[in-house]
């Protein structure tokens, strides 16, 4: 595979550092504890039980492959983007992403309303494939749009996506990107989003998944980083680390509360 992530890592790093400099000038706004490079940090915000939260999930960079019109193509305004199963491309695309089955369940909570379920909010979610490539951007799959989709939160604030376990690519811990919008209408016109963040996967599950067919490169890449040194999660990942259940045969389910 042709390396595609050098540019992406630099893009992510610039964006992340700019955001952290802004937080520093604002005194952190009580959201983040900043530390010297290489030293693990923790956020001051933690999610407790369902229906309760102490603060919003940390905002993160969308990275160089968002597909929301902010850096190149915009998939959000295309017919077909509202879907739960994101494994296959739609429209002019024809490919289906392969990998260990994964369901991603996010529960959106409204911090402005006592952390009640944010019914009617919309989540746009995307991540890389088994080879660490992003549809719409990476060489060989620029005409594909798999592993991208939008869902509207139900009465309990929940959205569910059917996908595959993403790879670990060079320079990053395994993760999923997502944006939260106040409504489906806002999401599908690429309107004003509430937040952009990322979900992280536990190390033990990553090691198990990457021992299966197709994830060979991920074994090497995972060994070269950690949650505490990753450019995004090293600043605190308690609110972004998913709870995982399941196995490689029947598939996994990743759950995360998303207070916004």
Structural description of this entry:
This protein has one domain (5-259): Protocatechuate 3,4-Dioxygenase, subunit A. It is of the alpha+beta class and 260 residues long. Strands 1, 2, 5, 8 and 9 form a five-stranded mixed sheet that branches. The chain has a four-stranded antiparallel sheet with strand order 4-3-6-7. It is built from four helices and nine strands, in the order H-E-E-E-E-E-E-H-E-H-H-E-E. Strand 1 (101-110) and strand 2 form a beta hairpin. It has helices at 5-25, 184-187, 203-209, 216-223, and strands spanning 101-110, 116-117, 122-126, 148-152, 158-164, 175-181, 195-200, 243-247, 251-259. It starts with a helix and ends with a strand.
CATH overall fold name? Protocatechuate 3,4-Dioxygenase, subunit A
Low-confidence stretches: 1-51
Radius of gyration: 17 Å
- Report the strand count: 9
CATH architecture: Sandwich
Helix and strand element order: HEEEEEEHEHHEE
List keywords for this structure.
single chain; 260 residues; alpha+beta; Protocatechuate 3,4-Dioxygenase, subunit A; 5-stranded mixed β-sheet; 9 strands; 22% strand; globular; disordered N terminus
Concise summary:
The chain has 260 residues and is α+β, with helices and mostly antiparallel strands. The chain has helices at 5-25, 184-187, 203-209, 216-223, and strands spanning 101-110, 116-117, 122-126, 148-152, 158-164, 175-181, 195-200, 243-247, 251-259.
